[in-house]
């Protein structure tokens, strides 16, 4: 752990394992309640001077962290593949995406402007000033163990907040490596604190109830997000919640089915389906059903599962046994209720996959609302296909979910695409685009997918308060 600029190791530890092999790859300290308090104290003391630094000083440090992160890109990516299991190429992409937030917010730090506002009284002047919200408690997940850290820390640091980070218990080594990057960049002691915990609940409770923490930034499941949001509300804290998703993907009659199948095979199986923006219901118009399913199945059959260190493997392990069981139970439920299995549908245990948590990339067709997978987030390598016939109905079907994070549309007709973009109740919509994400673009969801946005100019507002000055002139 990294508290007040010191590395803390003398605690009981918990083990970190490689989900591809089951091997233990490290151990990290299990924080005590005193550690949580010490980290919050350090952040709150450091805030006094950090918030007085100039935007140019903060920008310079973020810029330096960006340089260090890129110089360590290979090392960070290899660590991520060992700890989380994703293919090395995907880890390299994530380190780059994570670094992008440092650069973007290093630049944005200098563009935090207030306003002058005309008054109806000629002897009155209004000005506003943007000020940092204060100490931030950040909680991050394991599926994107580096970029979810920088997506929160970079804007918080840019505006002059200090923070305590608690990473997921499955991927604390990536967080430790990021703390080293920030330390080397020269951030003052106490500005960034990292605590690791086997049991996240007490840390969450402290973040929500300690009056010195002014904002909670959380990425994780909707169930935990709702719980934390309720706890934070009791103490009137600002929150950002990046939660679960259940993305629809619609292939319209005027789309190219082969192009759609290619794109959706890529985005669905990215990170082995363990992504909040992963398509969870693929609606294909019946005129394309046969061509789409043939192309999708052919592509999915070519995906190879295994160690992320072997070139050519694109399917990594699931994060733990419970995740694997959840995926399989959704698939078995769908099959029992009449879905058709095109490929996959079982755990993979042959050869080197024996020790890991691998599930065969799966295509299901004939998925209906009676099946659990139609409404429940899967977070695994399963592509559920729904065949539809009515273009007007499909938009309502796509919106029929408690989630509102991402949606995808395939169409070669401008009017169809615009109408779909306007009708879909989701925060991020890819139109013939499977990667609608960037440090410069706002990321976040509606409904049970969360509150607030990360990245972009919206992402920096989440860490700012607006102060109004009214001046009466004599
Ligand atoms: P999770 O909610 O179990 O865990 C996420 C984080 O919350 C971890 O750090 C965990 O330790 C912590 N946590 C768990 N219980 C807690 C508690 N009671 N108090 C405080 N902290 C607690 O989620 P998960 O299943 O590990 O992660 C996957 C989920 O995250 C999926 O639902 C996915 O969609 C979502 N996610 C969302 C985004 C987004 O940007 N919207 C990005 C990545 C993941």
Automatic annotation (TrEMBL):
Domain of life, per lineage: Bacteria
SUPFAM superfamilies in the record: ALDH-like
UniProt domain Aldehyde dehydrogenase: residue ranges: 7-467
Record carries keyword Oxidoreductase: yes
Keyword Oxidoreductase: yes
Example GO molecular function: oxidoreductase activity, acting on the aldehyde or oxo group of donors, NAD or NADP as acceptor
Pfam families on file: Aldedh
Listed InterPro entries: Ald_DH/histidinol_DH (IPR016161), Ald_DH_C (IPR016163), Ald_DH_N (IPR016162), Aldehyde_DH_dom (IPR015590), Aldehyde_DH_Superfamily (IPR050740)
Keywords assigned by UniProt, alphabetized: Oxidoreductase
PANTHER family named in the record: SUCCINATE-SEMIALDEHYDE DEHYDROGENASE, MITOCHONDRIAL (PTHR43353:SF5)
Family affiliation: Belongs to the aldehyde dehydrogenase family.
Record's protein name: Succinate-semialdehyde dehydrogenase/glutarate-semialdehyde dehydrogenase
Top-level taxonomy: Bacteria, Pseudomonadati, Pseudomonadota, Gammaproteobacteria, Oceanospirillales
